[in-house]
C-alpha cells in the first residue's frame, strides 16, 4: 500500500470509528438514563421514607431560603425536579400555595400529585418540561437535590430555559451537594455565558453543613450542601 492510500484508509477508518463512538456514546447515555429512571420508578414509593432515614436536608433548606428571600406568599413557584413533592410540603408550611412541579419521572409525579400540595405537574426530561411553560411565568424556580447528581441528571444546559420561565427580577434557587460541582460533566461555562448576556446574575453561594448522611460505600466523605441564588435580569 502506498503512503497516500494508507492515509486515505486511515482517514476513512477514523471517520467510521468516530461515527460508531458517537452512536455508542448516545446509546450509553440513553441506557444510563433509562437505568436511572427505572431506579426512581421502582424506588418512588419508598423515596420519602429513605430520604428521612438519610437525613437529607435539601427540601427544608431550600424552602427556608425562599421564605427568607421573599415576603409575598402569593408568588408563583416552580419546583424543578420536584420528585415526590417534598419541597412543596415545606413551602406550604411557610404559607406559599402557588406551586407547580416538573420532573422526568411519572411515578414520582403521581406521588407528588397524591399529596395535593402542588397545582400543575409537568412531565419532561431536562428542559423538555420547561418548554411546555410560557415565558415569565414564575417568580421563583427552585430545585433541590436534582442538578448535577450524575451525568444523566439535569445540568447547566437547562439554565437558559429555566431563566426564560422566570419573570425579570425573579430568582432561580438551586441546592446541591457541593462536591458534585467538581464532577467532569458539570459545565459552568454556560453560567458565565448567561452572565455575560445579562440573562442572570449570581446573588449568593451559600455552603452549609449537613446535606445528608454518607452512604456506607460512598467515597466522598463531604457533607456540605450549597445554595445558589441567581437573579434573572
Ligand atoms: C433525588 S430526586 C430529588 C427530588 C426532590 N427535589 C427532593 O429534593 O426530594 C431527583 C429527581 O430528579 C428527577 N430527574 C432525574 N433526571 C432528570 C432529568 N434528566 N430531567 C428532569 N428530571 C430528572 C428524578 O426523576 C427525581 O425525581
TrEMBL record:
Ranges where the Methyltransferase type domain occurs: 78-174
Keywords attached to this entry: Methyltransferase, Transferase
Top-level taxonomy: Eukaryota, Metazoa, Cnidaria, Hydrozoa, Hydroidolina
Official protein name in the record: Methyltransferase GWCH70_2453
Alphabetical list of Gene3D superfamilies matching this protein: Vaccinia Virus protein VP39 (3.40.50.150)
Gene: LOC124807644
Pfam family, any one: Methyltransf_11
InterPro entries according to UniProt: Methyltransf_11, SAM-dependent_MTases_sf
Gene Ontology biological process terms in this record: methylation
PANTHER family named in the record: METHYLTRANSFERASE, RHODANESE DOMAIN-CONTAINING PROTEIN
GO MF entries: methyltransferase activity
Amino acid at each position: 500500500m502506498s503512503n497516500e492510500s494508507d492515509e486515505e484508509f486511515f482517514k476513512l477508518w477514523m471517520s467510521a470509528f468516530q461515527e460508531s463512538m458517537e452512536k455508542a456514546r448516545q446509546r450509553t447515555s440513553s441506557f444510563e438514563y433509562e437505568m436511572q429512571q427505572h431506579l426512581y420508578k421502582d424506588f418512588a414509593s419508598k423515596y420519602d421514607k429513605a430520604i428521612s432515614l438519610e437525613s437529607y436536608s435539601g427540601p427544608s433548606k431550600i424552602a427556608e431560603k425562599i421564605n427568607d428571600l421573599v415576603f409575598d406568599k402569593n408568588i408563583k413557584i416552580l419546583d424543578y425536579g420536584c420528585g415526590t413533592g417534598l419541597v412543596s410540603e415545606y413551602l406550604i408550611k411557610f404559607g406559599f400555595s402557588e406551586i407547580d412541579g416538573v420532573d422526568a419521572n411519572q411515578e414520582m409525579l403521581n406521588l407528588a400529585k397524591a399529596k395535593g400540595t402542588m397545582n400543575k405537574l409537568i412531565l419532561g426530561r431536562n428542559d423538555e418540561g420547561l418548554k411546555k411553560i410560557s415565558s415569565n411565568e414564575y417568580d421563583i424556580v427552585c430545585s433541590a437535590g436534582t442538578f448535577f447528581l450524575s451525568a444523566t441528571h439535569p445540568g447547566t444546559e437547562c439554565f437558559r430555559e429555566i431563566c426564560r420561565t422566570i419573570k425579570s427580577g425573579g430568582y432561580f434557587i438551586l441546592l446541591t451537594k457541593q462536591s458534585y460541582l467538581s464532577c467532569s460533566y458539570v459545565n459552568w461555562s454556560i453560567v458565565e455565558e448567561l452572565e455575560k448576556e445579562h440573562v442572570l446574575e449570581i446573588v449568593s453561594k451559600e455552603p452549609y453543613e449537613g446535606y445528608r448522611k454518607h452512604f456506607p460505600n460512598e467515597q466522598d466523605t463531604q457533607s456540605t450542601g450549597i445554595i445558589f441564588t441567581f437573579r434573572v435580569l
